[in-house]
Every structure is written in C-alpha cells, then in structure tokens.
Amino acid sequence: MAMKAKKLQPAKVEGIAAAKNILESCSDYIFADYRGLTVEQISELRKQLRAKNCKFKVVKNNFARIAFEELEIKDVTDYLTGPTAIALSTEDTNEVAKILYDFAKDAPALQVKGGLIEKEVYDAAKLEAFSKLPGKKQLIAMIMSTINAPVQKLAATLQAYVDKKSEGGEAAAE
Questions:
Q1: pTM, to two decimals
Q2: What mean pLDDT do residues 64-92 have?
Q3: Tell me, what's the pLDDT at 5?
Q4: In terms of C-beta density within 10 A (0-12 exposed, 13-18 middle, 19 or more buried), how is residue 157 classed?
Q5: CB neighbourhood size of 128 (10 A)
Q6: What mean pLDDT is reported for the chain?
Q7: In the 8-state DSSP scheme, what is residue 78?
C-alpha cells in the first residue's frame, strides 16, 4: 500500500495525476531496474522500444503505487522497489519483452523484474519464457500460410491437369 501524506502538496498531486495518465494509456507493463545504465544505453533502449510503439518511463515508485491503486491494479507493488522503469505497451508485448531481454544480454545492468500482461502478473522467469514466443503478426502469418498451402496445392494440381489435357488434346487433333 502506498503512503499518502496528510497534507497534499500540489506538485505531488500533479505528479500522481501525470503518472496515472501515463499508466492508464497502456494495458501491459514490464518493470525493469535500470540502475547502472548510461544515458546512451537508455536512449538506445528507448529508440528500440519506440519502434514497437512502446514507452520506457521512469516514474517515482510512490506515485506509481498510488496511480496503480487508483486504477485498481494492486498486484504490481512488489516490483516498485528501487530504481524502476516501466515499459508501457499496448500491443505485441512479447516483442517488447524480447527487446528488453536482448538488451539485457548486452547491458547486464538492466534487470527485468516482472510485468503485468493482460491483467496477469508475470515474474521474471515467466516473462522471459513469454518473450521467446512468436509475436501476434508472426502467428497470423503462420496461420495464413497454413490455410493458404492446401489451396495453392489444389490450384497447382488443377493447373497441371489442364496443362496435361491441353497437351493431350493437341496430340489427338493431329
């Protein structure tokens, strides 16, 4: 549970409101400890995440706790300890997780703590397994190629039959 002051300061109220606006704009959250990363590394990570329509924000832990409570999401408070950055995603979250884990291989200072995906809490191990799954677009392409393969085979067989018939028809006419 987040601590709330008895006397609310306007700057803190604005900070909590800003955190809430950022958090409610996305549906999936991945929490990471960024301590030890250089500015260049964080900038590069943000650039890679932006390519997947993902934001990588650093929010004060207490502000984030209060904002999550106001959004009625209570399962993530364990991840809001120490320096925490949140990868905010609306789609293709497993690709975002893959980017974070691949980046952590090059920069071991980045530690993925866990996440909240589709309202289910993932610990670091489960999130790493999730990151190895194919993305939504890849799955759709796999399904479409599976559906399309028999039709292509049928069309090729029918075309071969027509070609053979036309070759046989010319020979019979001569």
A1: 0.75
A2: 88
A3: 61
A4: exposed
A5: 16
A6: 86
A7: G
